[in-house]
Amino acid sequence: MQESDEITKLIKEVSFRESNSKDYEKMSVEEISKELKEVMRFEQESFKKIEVFEKSQQNPDVVKYAKMICKNNTQREITQIQEIYLKKIDKEYLNSK
What we know:
mainly alpha; 3 helices
């Protein structure tokens, strides 16, 4: 039962992470780069936790759901950050010549 609670906690953590998103438009390129690395690190750590649950979990549907939620939410956040990051790089470095 404890493992089930832990995977539910992870699902909630991933799901509500997006609601804590920041205003990337106002950040510098360096800050956005740092944020992007943090989100990618969060994604990797989440998938490592899911792998542990996968080995010991008796309900494979919950594990599949956790993978789906993690992948969708983190990829959405990564895509959002990358879009702003690339625009800022283009604006600050490429168009400045």
